[in-house]
Amino acid sequence: MVIAPTLAAVLTIGAPTTAPAPKTLHARPVVYVQAGHQGPREPGYRAQTGASGEAAWTQAIAAKVEYRLRRKGVDARHTAGLVTPNPAPGAVFISIHYDIPSGHAAVGHAIAGYGENYYHGDGFGLPSSTPYSDTVPHRVATRVSRGVDAASTRLAKRLAARYTRVFTPANGARSGPVQLVTSTGNRRMMRYYGYYRSTAPARVLVECGAVGTDAAFLKRKDFVAGVIANAIVDHLRAEGRL
User: What does the pLDDT average to over 104-128?
Assistant: First the structure.
């Protein structure tokens, strides 16, 4: 005996089912971490080897920052002084340094309306907005738009805020407060060549302290790396990239 389906059953036959929409997953954001002055260095800047012991220290810190970023779901990639690839893509480009004994902890960032510095030969003398007659040719540069300037400023402020909280005499810092460099400030930091070898929307440079003066603080490599990595994660989350 064939039983005719009810009207309700007929209406539901072949009706589409409603399934929950899949969650949107963020692609792993890419962050390029540059160990300042690590060889090979950039053409036009190869003579700039950094403060005493700086290149070895920045390599150690960069590796620790990269490790922490990866544990947070970030695609952290390393570059030496010669930015590789050129241009380096991603969400963030950060260059890690420390300063001379008379210097400071400071954070600089890419600014619109300017270009990179030029020097005599392979990095000697005072910075210039235009090449000297003996300047070693530079590689192809990217540009810093107003949008990049704004995003770089936001990252710089987040990094400076985190760093300020821990860069204290109690933690071994002796060079004074962390400086957030303005657009008309230290041009070596604000027109740093690395900003022009990346297409990341946020590009910053951090001077982690002054060698000798802040020796006790700088020896705490895991601690320093943790502060930098956490600031980058803060930024990526605030920008909706993580």
Answer: 98
Burial of 156 (0-12, 13-18, 19+ CB in 10 A): buried
pLDDT (tens digit per residue) in 32-42: 999 999 999 99
Alpha helices by DSSP H, listed for 32-117, are 54-71
DSSP codes joined into one string, 121-134: TTTEEEEESS--TT
Helix axes 146-166, 221-238, angle to 10 degrees: 140
Which residues touch 3 (CB under 8 Å, ≥6 apart)? none
Handedness of CA 193, 198, 204, 205 (dihedral sign): negative
For residue 26, pLDDT over 80 is answered with: no
Q: Residues of 193-213 as b/e, b for ≥16 C-beta within 10 angstroms?
A: bbbbbbebbbbbbbbbbbbbb
Q: Are 78 and 62 in contact (CB under 8 A)?
A: yes
With beta carbons less than 8 A apart as the criterion, state whether 46 and 122 touch.
Answer: yes
Compute the average pLDDT of residues 14-39: 71
CB 44 within 8 Å of CB 122: yes
CA 191/CA 100 separation, integer angstroms: 19
Model pLDDT for residues 172-215, shown as the tens digit of each residue: 999 999 999 999 999 999 999 999 999 999 999 999 999 999 99
Average pLDDT, the chain: 92
Q: What is the mean pLDDT of residues 74-87?
A: 98
Q: pTM for this one?
A: 0.89
Say if CB 79 and CB 34 are below 8 A apart. yes
Say which residue the tokens 């060549």 belong to: 193
